[in-house]
């Protein structure tokens, strides 16, 4: 394992992942929560966040977006930071890992072949009624996990869900976890106050504020997004090791699994993210996971500090941080013999071609 990958916890799962057949699936979803001004940087404007999941999928498959003229980017002080989907694409191309898309409820459907788990996007969590039929989404995800694990010996699950840290905050808080100010964000200035106000407004609107803690399905229905039950279902259905490729959103998936399945074992599950999330001073992924279970976390440093691409350098300054399974894709590629330095160089090449 490359020195650019830091381990938090046990490394017992690594031998199971090395030299394994790996399959990467990216679960895409949307909610109207991302339309709230200032709550996410996953798009140049709140309206464009609807296109981000589809555009991420199209970039990984086609090398360009098909659903809109330009790739969604995060703007920080006038400088655009490219979507982390470009890191995922670089990693998967170099390692030749196969890639699938699953729609858990994206507002805009990608122009690529994809698996349909749920077609309907989520509403704003401020309404207190964010996701329809989360149990059905979970059960369909479980069927998918059972099927995919017959095709591979290691399943990586990434996600592209704008405002996903806010919906994860809502779900975790509703289930009784101490998470205020602990979820990450896609901009250097993490809007904790806005996120908390949005969650509290939704909780009040749901009429469930006097029934806390909620069960995981209630929490998602009131304050979540469709990605969480979909990824939880895939993980629950899998019979092979699972890498949850994402940031603090994946802690909500883990908490969902713990509450829905009290006997669920995390021995063959790890969270893999980027160093930008693992060392983020505006959040604390380690504090959250410790409340859930002993969950192994791996964090990859792509070395963007020495990149000549100003957009990638913006990651070091707190922009974007993670998404589209970037951290997990880098780890999987490295376990197949691709160095993190090679991934950085390939990412820079793709940025020149695409942007």
How many helix segments?
14
Rough outline = globular
Compute the average pLDDT. 94
Number of strand elements:
10
Distance between the termini: 31 Å
Topology overview:
Blueprint lengths: L4 E4 L5 H4 L4 E8 L22 H11 L10 E4 L2 E4 L2 H11 L3 E7 L9 E2 L17 H15 L5 E7 L3 H11 L17 H15 L9 H8 L3 H11 L4 E4 L3 H12 L8 E6 H4 L6 H8 L3 E5 L9 H7 L9 H10 L4 H15 L1
Parallel strand pairs: 2-5, 2-7, 5-6, 7-8, 8-9, 9-10
Antiparallel strand pairs: 1-10, 3-4
Helix pairs in contact: 2-3, 3-13, 3-14, 4-8, 5-6, 5-7, 5-9, 8-9, 9-11
Any descriptors?
two-stranded antiparallel sheet, eight-stranded mixed sheet, 355 residues, alpha/beta
Structure description:
The chain is of the alpha/beta class and 355 residues long. The protein has helices at residues 14-17, 52-62, 85-95, 134-148, 164-174, 192-206, 216-223, 227-237, 249-260, 275-278, 285-292, 310-316, 326-335, 340-354; strands at residues 5-8, 22-29, 73-76, 79-82, 99-105, 115-116, 154-160, 242-245, 269-274, 296-300. The chain has an eight-stranded mixed β-sheet, with helices on both faces. Strands 3-4 form a two-stranded antiparallel sheet. Helix 4 (134-148) packs parallel to helix 8. The model has no long low-confidence stretch (mean pLDDT 94).
């Amino acid at each position: 394992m490359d020195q650019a990958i830091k381990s938090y916890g046990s490394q017992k799962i690594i031998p199971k992942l090395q030299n394994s057949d790996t399959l990467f699936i990216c679960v895409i979803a949307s909610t109207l929560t991302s339309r709230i001004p200032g709550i996410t940087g996953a798009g140049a404007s709140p309206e464009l966040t609807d296109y981000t999941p589809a555009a991420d999928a199209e970039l990984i498959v086609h090398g360009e977006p098909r659903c809109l003229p330009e790739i969604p980017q995060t703007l920080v002080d006038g400088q655009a930071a490219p979507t982390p989907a470009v890191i995922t694409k670089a990693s998967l191309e170099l390692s030749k890992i196969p890639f699938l898309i699953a729609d858990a409820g994206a507002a805009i459907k990608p122009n690529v072949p994809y698996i349909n788990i749920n077609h309907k996007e989520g509403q704003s969590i401020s309404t207190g009624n964010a996701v329809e039929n989360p149990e059905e989404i979970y059960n369909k995800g479980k069927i998918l996990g059972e099927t995919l694990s017959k095709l591979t010996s290691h399943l990586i699950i990434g996600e592209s869900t704008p405002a996903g840290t806010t919906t994860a905050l809502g779900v975790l808080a509703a289930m009784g976890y101490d998470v205020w100010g602990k979820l990450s964000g896609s901009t250097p200035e993490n809007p904790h106050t806005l996120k908390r106000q949005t969650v509290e407004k939704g909780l009040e609107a749901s009429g469930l504020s006097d029934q806390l803690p909620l069960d995981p399905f209630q929490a998602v229905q009131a304050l979540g997004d469709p990605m969480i039950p979909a990824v939880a279902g895939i993980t629950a259905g899998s019979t092979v090791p699972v890498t949850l490729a994402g940031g603090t959103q994946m802690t909500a998936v883990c908490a969902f699994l713990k509450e829905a399945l009290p006997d669920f074992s995390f021995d063959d599950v790890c969270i893999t993210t980027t160093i930008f999330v693992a060392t983020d001073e505006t959040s604390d992924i380690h504090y959250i996971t410790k409340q859930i279970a002993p969950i192994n976390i791996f964090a990859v440093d792509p070395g963007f500090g020495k990149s000549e691409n100003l957009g990638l350098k913006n990651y070091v300054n707190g922009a974007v941080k993670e998404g589209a399974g970037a951290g997990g894709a880098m780890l999987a590629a490295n376990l197949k013999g691709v160095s993190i330095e090679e991934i950085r160089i390939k990412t820079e090449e793709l940025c020149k071609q695409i942007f």
